[in-house]
Amino acid sequence: MEKTELRQSGIATLKKLAEQPKKKAKKEEMILALFFASRIWKEANVIGMIRSTPFEFNTEPIMQRAWAENKRVVVPKSLPKRQLAFYEVDARTAYRTTKFGVDEPISALHVSKEEIDVLLVPGIIFSKDGYRIGFGGGFYDRYLAEYKGRTCSLIFSEQLNNDWQHDSFDLPVARIFTDTFKGVTYE
């Protein structure tokens, strides 16, 4: 299957899971427990993440916990030439929704790549080796090419699929947290 077909199928699967809020919440709770118990979380002071859409893994509890533990949260804005820049946010930050349906912070508090301890990388489909199929813009691939901090993704088992070939320019995330351990590599 081509990446475009996998992406469309993956989005449909995520939307179907979102129609089962109790099941989705239970999976998220399990994944969050693993993530919050990890060294990645415990050692991080600055955490980069998206503000999730309703069918994606809910990042709001991560933000809330980060602020409660005095960690800094940074959220990306898209720039020209499919680039990303991250900006610090707090509970009072306002957002604007882009034409892609993504919430971007209205913030001038830019945070450099070097300051971000861990980046929660979004995606639609993931291989057991951490390669991902995102939404197709290449924003994260470009950012990850120069990012030296830790990377991970919090995903539902429904997003795991090894029946595709990653491209030479694709960069895997170092760790996947999911509601099943079958075939997933850890750092």
UniProtKB/TrEMBL annotation:
Cofactor: Mg(2+)
Recorded GO MF terms: 5-formyltetrahydrofolate cyclo-ligase activity; ATP binding; metal ion binding
Domain of life according to the entry: Bacteria
Species, as recorded: Enterococcus saccharolyticus subsp. saccharolyticus ATCC 43076
A GO BP annotation: folic acid-containing compound biosynthetic process
Family that this chain belongs to: Belongs to the 5-formyltetrahydrofolate cyclo-ligase family.
EC number: 6.3.3.2
Binding residues for ATP: 3-7, 132-140
Keyword annotations: ATP-binding, Ligase, Magnesium, Metal-binding, Nucleotide-binding
Pfam families referenced in this protein's UniProt entry, alphabetically: 5-FTHF_cyc-lig (PF01812)
Name of the molecule in the record: 5-formyltetrahydrofolate cyclo-ligase
Taxonomic classification: Bacteria, Bacillati, Bacillota, Bacilli, Lactobacillales
Reactions catalysed: (6S)-5-formyl-5,6,7,8-tetrahydrofolate + ATP = (6R)-5,10-methenyltetrahydrofolate + ADP + phosphate
